[in-house]
Every structure is written in structure tokens, then in C-alpha cells.
């Protein structure tokens, strides 16, 4: 799996640097910086916001299972800025078994595994989903994809994060009930933790 994750990382970097469409001026990025969110299609906004939700899910999954060769928390925190670019490197080189105790402080393990935190993640996902109730257009998203480097890269990043979230759930919780819920984008791994009573020791 090490080689696969590294190859995906190389492909992602190559796409972002050499293949992502868009000109010198990014219309979506300009609208975000200017606060003109009304000019952005709701689906684009929902995907953009979800790139802040995915890292919270990975922070939960990785810190609850931080026993590997490399500490997971730097990569989990960095994913808030660069998404899958940091997580792919962790899974490629750092996610190897090590004979050590859990690095995460006990109080943080209790918090991240608590129903309060998991429900908060679910609510954040639901609130982001409400963005789509404004009405959205796949045609507008497609247009944004080819006009904006931000949208094109974040779309590819979104799918990589989705796949990684499913892999992470199956990787750390092989005996969990209802593991198939992990395939639900973003919220799936949280639901797997929620429906299993012992979040840290599934």
C-alpha cells in the first residue's frame, strides 16, 4: 500500500501543478476573498466547506489510533491547509505498526470519542448540506471546474479524501459493526464510530 499512496500523492501533485485548468485569475478565489459568496454556485461552496470537515474527521480517526511509526497529529492538522496532500504522505510512510502506546492524551481520546464531539461533527455536516437547499447546478459546477484552478484541485482532493476516509475506517476498525456506513461521504466514518459503543477500542 505504501507505493500506492505515494503514487496517488505524485499524481495529485502533478495534477495540481501541471494539469489543473484555470487561468492566472481565479474567479472563485476572487469571489471568496471579496466576500461575494452569492456569485458562487452552492454546490461549489458545499464542496469547499467540506474540505474543512474532512480534516476534522481525520483528526478524530487518526488521533484515536495514533500508535503508528510516525505521529499522526502533524499530518492531521496539516490536512486543514493542504488536505489529502499531507495525509497521503502519512499513509505512505508513517502508517506502519509500532510497538508503542497511544500517543494521544487520555483526555483528548475521551473528547474525540465522545457522543458530544461526534454529534457536533454530524451537525456541521448537516449545516453544510443546507447550503444545497439554495439550489445548485451541475452545469455551473462543471463550468467552475474548468474556469477555476481552486475548484478543479479541490474536487480531486475531495474524492481522494473520501477514499482515504473509507480506508482509514476499515484500517483501524476492522471489527466495527455497519462499516459500510463509512462509504457515506464525510459523515460515514463518524456514523461508524457513533453506532459502535466503544469508539476507541472497536
Provide the succession of SSEs: HHHHHHHHHH
The number of domains is: 1
Anisotropy-based shape? globular
Main β-sheet: number of strands, strand sense, barrel status?
A: none
Mean pLDDT: 92
Please state the structural category: mainly alpha
Q: Give a count of the beta strands, DSSP E runs of length 2 or more.
A: 0
Give a structural overview:
This protein is mostly helical and 202 residues long. The protein has one domain. The protein has 10 helices and no strands. The chain has helices at 2-19, 27-34, 42-63, 73-82, 84-94, 106-112, 115-130, 138-147, 149-172, 188-195. The protein is globular and about 50 Å long.
Comma- or semicolon-separated keywords:
202 residues; mainly alpha
Topology, please?
Elements: H1 2-19, H2 27-34, H3 42-63, H4 73-82, H5 84-94, H6 106-112, H7 115-130, H8 138-147, H9 149-172, H10 188-195
Characterize this entry briefly.
By secondary structure, the protein is mostly helical.
Amino acid at each position: 500500500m505504501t507505493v500506492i499512496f505515494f503514487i496517488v500523492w505524485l499524481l495529485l501533485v502533478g495534477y495540481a501543478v501541471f494539469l489543473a485548468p484555470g487561468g492566472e485569475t481565479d474567479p472563485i478565489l476572487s469571489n471568496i476573498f471579496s466576500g461575494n459568496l452569492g456569485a458562487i454556485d452552492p454546490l461549489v461552496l458545499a464542496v469547499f466547506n467540506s474540505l474543512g470537515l474532512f480534516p476534522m474527521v481525520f483528526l478524530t480517526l487518526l488521533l484515536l489510533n495514533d500508535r503508528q511509526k510516525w505521529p499522526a497529529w502533524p499530518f492531521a492538522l496539516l490536512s486543514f491547509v493542504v488536505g489529502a496532500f499531507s495525509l497521503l504522505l502519512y499513509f505512505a510512510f508513517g502508517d506502519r505498526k509500532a510497538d508503542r502506546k497511544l500517543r494521544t492524551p487520555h483526555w483528548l481520546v475521551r473528547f474525540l470519542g465522545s457522543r458530544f464531539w461526534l454529534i457536533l461533527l454530524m451537525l456541521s455536516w448537516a449545516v453544510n448540506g443546507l447550503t444545497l437547499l439554495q439550489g445548485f447546478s451541475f452545469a455551473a459546477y462543471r463550468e467552475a471546474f474548468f474556469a477555476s484552478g481552486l475548484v478543479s484541485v479541490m474536487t480531486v482532493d475531495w474524492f481522494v479524501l473520501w477514499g482515504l476516509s473509507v480506508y482509514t475506517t476499515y484500517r483501524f476498525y476492522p471489527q466495527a459493526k455497519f462499516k459500510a456506513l463509512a462509504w457515506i461521504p464525510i459523515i460515514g466514518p463518524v456514523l461508524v464510530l457513533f453506532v459502535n459503543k466503544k469508539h476507541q477500542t472497536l
